């Protein structure tokens, strides 16, 4: 027979165990962010400096890689994925000519307001920004800036999750301005590994998924007020209406649709 413990006595201390932090390379951290954001498809051509990324992708069965014959097809295929499913896809290209070829597809996606994530490589930091003119060298940031909503260079693997998350926010917030390019220099070596608390708690904020563009209430109210005052209002529904699935609602509120 056991005795009941004293209800007033303090409870015995229990040992708590915490999972050790993950130690990831920049490529592994990027793959984890892609998974958290619902990315399941990557398009592109295999290249030497992309090898760490492809190695990380090969260990993740939930993301499928589809090879293309020309880098320009990658952004257009990624844009088609978003147009058909609402999910973001990724297009990759090697440094130099690969990044330049991506620009053709990026322009198509940009003009049609279809977001995607474009990833290129570049030379090591000692030979880039400012560039020294080494073999296959190209300032892809300058080339793609007119064709993207936002781009960045990752010089430290520890910032990979933060900048990848921001890329998703920039692509899906406000005007879905086509594509954005996310350039990276550091897939990571043993000395540039990244510590994280877990695959679902990487630094940075999660972007809206599958989704609908963020509404600008001030603009919506202003447009509605102008339509009420107009004698013969003309309502033009663009890509934002289509992306939000609001075509039926717009027709219902238009007296002469």
* Biggest sheet overview: 6 strands, parallel
Low-pLDDT residue spans: 188-214
Helical coverage, percent range:
25-40%
Distance between the termini: 82 Å
* Widest β-sheet, arrangement of strands: 3-2-4-5-7-6
Structural class: alpha/beta
Number of helices: 9
- What is the CATH homologous superfamily assignment of the largest domain? Thiamin diphosphate (ThDP)-binding fold, Pyr/PP domains
Name of the CATH architecture of the largest domain:
3-Layer(aba) Sandwich
Structural domains: how many:
2
The mean pLDDT is: 76
Give the H and E element order. EHEHEHEHEHEHEEHHH
* Shape field: globular
Number of DSSP strand runs: 8
How large is the share of residues in beta strands?
Answer: 5-15%
User: How much is the radius of gyration in Å?
Assistant: 23 Å
Indicate the CATH topology of the largest domain: Rossmann fold
Assembly state = single chain
| CATH first level of the largest domain | Alpha Beta
Short key terms for the protein model shown above:
alpha/beta; two-stranded antiparallel ribbon; 35% helix; Rossmann fold; 257 residues; 6-stranded parallel β-sheet; 8 strands
Notes on the protein architecture:
The structure is a single chain. The protein has helices spanning 26-36, 51-58, 73-85, 97-111, 140-144, 160-172, 217-229, 239-243, 247-252; strands at residues 22-24, 41-44, 64-67, 90-93, 117-120, 148-154, 179-184, 194-196. With 257 residues, the chain is of the alpha/beta class. The chain has two domains: 22-196, Thiamin diphosphate (ThDP)-binding fold, Pyr/PP domains (Rossmann fold); 217-252, no CATH class. The strands form two sheets. Strands 3-2-4-5-7-6 form a six-stranded parallel sheet, with helices on both faces. The chain has a two-stranded antiparallel ribbon with strand order 1-8. The longest helix is centred in the middle third of the chain and has 15 residues, at 97-111. The radius of gyration is 23 Å and the shape is globular.
């Amino acid at each position: 027979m056991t005795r009941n413990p004293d209800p007033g006595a303090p409870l015995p201390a229990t040992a708590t165990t915490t999972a050790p932090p993950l130690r990831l390379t920049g490529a592994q951290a990027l793959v984890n962010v892609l998974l958290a954001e619902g990315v399941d498809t990557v398009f592109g051509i295999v290249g030497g400096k992309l090898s760490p990324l492809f190695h990380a992708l090969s260990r993740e069965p939930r993301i499928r890689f589809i090879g293309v014959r020309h880098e320009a097809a990658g952004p257009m295929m990624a844009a088609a994925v978003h147009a058909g499913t609402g999910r973001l896809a990724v297009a990759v290209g090697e440094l130099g000519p690969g990044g330049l070829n991506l620009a053709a597809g990026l322009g198509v996606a940009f003009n049609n307001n279809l977001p995607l994530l474009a990833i290129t490589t570049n030379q090591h930091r000692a030979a880039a920004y400012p560039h020294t003119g080494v073999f296959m060298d190209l300032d892809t940031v300058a080339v793609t800036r007119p064709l993207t909503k936002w781009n960045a260079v990752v010089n430290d693997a520890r910032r990979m999750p933060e900048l990848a998350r921001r890329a998703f926010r920039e692509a899906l917030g406000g005007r879905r301005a086509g594509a954005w390019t996310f350039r990276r220099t550091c897939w990571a070596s043993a000395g540039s590994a990244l510590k994280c608390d877990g695959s679902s708690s990487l630094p940075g904020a999660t972007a809206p998924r599958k989704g609908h563009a963020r509404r600008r209430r001030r603009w919506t109210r202003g447009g509605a007020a102008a339509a009420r005052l107009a004698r013969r209002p003309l309502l033009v529904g663009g890509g934002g209406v289509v992306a939000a699935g609001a075509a039926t609602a717009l027709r219902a509120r238009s007296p002469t649709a």
